[in-house]
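User: Here's a chain of 787 residues. Predict its fold as tokens.
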Amino acid sequence: MEETRHIRTTLQSKLVREKIDGLKFIISGMAGGENMSDYFADVVNTLASPQLEVKKLAYVYLLQYAHTKPDEVLLSINAFQKDLAHANPLVRSLSLRVLTSIRVHMIVGLQMLAIRKCVQDPSPYVRRAAANALAKVHGLDRAQEDELVSMMAQLLKDGSAAVVGASVSAFVRICPDRLELLHSSFRRLCEVLIDMDEFPQIQLLDVLLLYARAYFPEPPREHCGFVEGPASLPFSTIPARPVRDLKIELSSFYGDEATDAESRQPAPPTQASVDTEAGGGERTIDPDHLLLLRSIKPLLHSRNAGVVLGATAICYHTAPGYLGDCIPSLVLSMRQSRETQTLVLASVKDMAQAQPELFGRFLSDFYVDHADCTEARNHKLEILSVLVNEANAHQALKELQSYLLEGDPKFVSRSVSTIGRIALRLPNLAEACCTGLVKLCTHSYAEVVGESVGVLRNLIDVDPEGKHAVVLQLVRKFKRMTSPPGRANVLWLAGRYCGLGDKLPKVVPELLRVCAKNFLMEPKLVKLQIISLAANVLYKFPTETNELLFRYIMDLGWYDEDFDIRDKSRLFTVILLGRATKHGAAGQGESLAGVEQEMVFSQEQIGELLHPENSTVSELLTEARASHTHSPKQWRLGTISHVVGHRAPGYMSLANFPDDPPPTSIRDIQQAAQPGPSGTGGGIERGGNGQTEAFYADRADGADDSSEYSSSSTSSYDGSTASGSSSESDSAVGDGEDEEETVADPPENTDADACEPSGADDVGRQDDLATEIAAAGSKLGHMGFYD
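Assistant: Prediction complete.
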């Protein structure tokens, strides 16, 4: 209680230092997880202080509790509106953030008015806050969508990369399906893509992928790779343009020389075309599509795996011919965290199935490591099953053989399954794979034994004549097998191919006698196969001994507690003995209907019933042989739906390439003569003294005492430096206790944004500046610049 009283006293003190100490104490408690909402009214009162640091700390607090106390915040709206005209852009942005965080429907009009004003603010930091506020208001009142979309379209053409990134985030949250809004800003988005932060880059790459599939024609599938300039273009008809216009060279991005805003505007491209060698016809690629591909090339060197995967997804879904240049960066990104590795491997698996030749030289990068998680191991095994060919088969099989010594039975079983898929796809390796798999039939893990016999069953079914010796080896190992699936598969093979060779017809009946002796102790899966084996032996070797053995097994199955076993026993009794009786043997007991019913089947019909086509093997063969073919892409790479395998909320499907794509001219921009917050050059007439302030001039010539934002703080933007003149107030700290301190520290970075401007004007001129900016904004709006 005493502590609460002390904090309230410090917040109400006239000394700035005491207010700052009280606010810092509250914020430290918030960081520690304490509930500091009791001080809400006292913190709101500190907004009246003209000191910048006090306002910053107060707004940090309000951002945390504004949405939880809407009624109390409503009483302070006047303070927020007043701070929207503050001389410091940091205060203006913070006040907008707090104002739009109030979840009260009745103040939507005030929020829209504040956003409309901040959209035309000269500071990119404030315009970025306005872009972030668009989605907040849209979530509160969807009736404002049309006006919000209009302001968002204006911000998408902004001269600041940070503002454009925030606008893209707003686009994704407000209207992700209205891709036609990107026509006029598409080239601008491609230009600033490399300058954005990593998270907006990922969002923009996803949006550009959807746009490319909806409005660009399908490009040629021939591999041509990324191009460095017009001289090396495979599309010879594309006109030469300066590299700095396209902004794809790393030297221009990391170089010291500055690029002025006028040279950054890309020239309107013309249609490019290539002649395909296969069809002899003309295939076209949209030059804006080529601009997109050039823009994403530097992103392949990003440290963020999400950015690399997003750039790769664009090539994979829109231009498969360029995918080869993305593979090295994608493989390198697998060496990050386990979560990242799993997501990247899931995408590589699909790409390897579509174009396995691109990953051949990276085969060793997909070897399983002991530190890999289960999902990563499974993905790597599936990738290996696709990448193995005649050239690297010996190396890959040797690696897979080492996996069989692992202690995890599930991983060993998947390794055996991988060997089987490789053998099905490469018949020349089937013999060597069968030899190694037979040795695993006596493995200590029952799961491994079952998988090994199952793989052998699939391989033998492909070429039974050449592998009947393998069946004989499995029959001889039957007694030592403990896995029910493995024993069932051996019985299936013995019944299916009991007539091959010279030894199987002699060994299989003996196997049936051993199984009949232990029939009652076998599990259900093995019992069903014993019944099938007895029917096959009697059908192919109709001797008296085999018939007695068959009747004995059918009598045991006739009264089994499992209805599947009972049904199968009675069915085969009717098929092979030609009559259905109560006890299953002809002439014993009464018939089911009181009269014996003869049922006659031809030999062909009996053969079809005993040996149906093995659909499982057919599916495996189809899957293995189709691994080298280009399969349709069901999910976009890098999405949650692609990872989980089903449609997740918010997922947007890729559109098919248009048969009649729109012309390139829809992305041409009508250049306006008047400048604005998103342009460069020109000036804004000030109403106070009639002077002209060149907010966006390349040089701050003729600077007066108005607000100036240093070039160092805006150098991360695309050359649109808001420059004017300023007079910084010196820091003056009073020595006496009763003297109020004046804090003029430069604003600290907030929200990890590097674009925060520095410096502040005199507090007494904030109202005049607000009036001037509002007058200038209304004048520009009246001139139709933002229409």
